[in-house]
Amino acid sequence: MDKKLLDRAVYNIDNRVLEKTIADYAASNKDIKNLEGLIRTFEKSDFIVPVTFPKQAGMKTVLKIINGLPLEKNERVPLIPLIMTDDKGMKFAPAFTSREKIRDASGFPFMVRANAKQVISTALNEKLGLNGVLVNPQGEGIRIMNQAFTVDFAKVTAAPKPQIKKVSREEFILLSRNMTEKNLIPKTLFEQKAEFVSQLEERREEFLLELYNKPYGEKNPSPYTLDEFSVMPLNIDDETTAICMELPPKKMAPGLALSAYVIWNPKAEKAGYYMIEKGQQGESNVLCSITAGMKHEELMTAPPVGSELSAVLDLIREEREEKGEYPE
């Protein structure tokens, strides 16, 4: 589509309030309260949406739709969304908040003005198999998953009544393990860097066991033993040391780590932390990372057993090629 065509009055959309809520949501690290505000504003907005038309749609009908003119009953045709796929294989319906957010329209056959109800209906259409809406894909590109359009925010954000909940030992073990794998270990790694790597290389399973035992005390002994851990340091090259950690298979639940990988660049003094997390019931395991900013990221479906480290190193090589450094 020629971008000059977007100068038509039908594409005059003022979504500054929505764009502010999108920025607030991103800045809040995707807090549920900010998500509610985003969805509420989204539902009141119009968008510019890339589409194609079925073959039976005549040019007269197409021009009416593009220009936002009313259609006769016999002129109504379904709009076919132009689907975008991200690097994880998830599919989205793209939507732009304004013409200024469209940097390149050459890949879009047609673009129409659509209200939020039409956009959401497209995203939730089971026949299309979409995961959500990708807002402003050529700019800040924020993904809104389908679940966000169906969640009952009144229940999610309702202030809980003060109460004291007793946690069972099994619940405590799972919570403690999750905290150790996603907070204690990566936080200590990124703070201590070379010192942490040296300890892990030299003391191996003993050092790892100490980290997993930290949440416990004499009255609540740890369930883990030394022989349940395996630590293997590998010098890949002058700029890459990999430490592979096999973690206890018992006391396991979805979201916990089956194995973890510390990647250390001694020259740049930069570290990376990756995990193979157990998937939800019926779903595949996932390769994840914790960044230096303590952000949890799902990277890809876990590779076959035995090739996890190769997958991690491939991701790092790709990052080096793109940025010239390890991801932070």
As a percent range, the share of strand residues is: 15-25%
What's the helix count? 10
* Strand line-up of the largest beta sheet: 8-9-10-11-12-13
State the helicity in percent bands: 25-40%
Return residue spans where pLDDT drops below 50 for at least 5 consecutive residues: none
Mean pLDDT: 87
Shape: elongated
Topology:
Blueprint: H1 16-27, H2 32-42, E1 46-52, H3 59-66, E2 80-81, E3 84-85, E4 91-95, E5 110-115, H4 116-123, E6 132-135, E7 142-145, H5 146-150, H6 153-156, H7 169-192, H8 194-203, H9 205-213, E8 230-237, E9 240-246, E10 257-265, E11 270-277, E12 286-290, E13 296-301, H10 308-323
Please give a quick description of this structure:
By secondary structure, the chain is an alpha+beta fold. It contains ten helices and 13 strands.
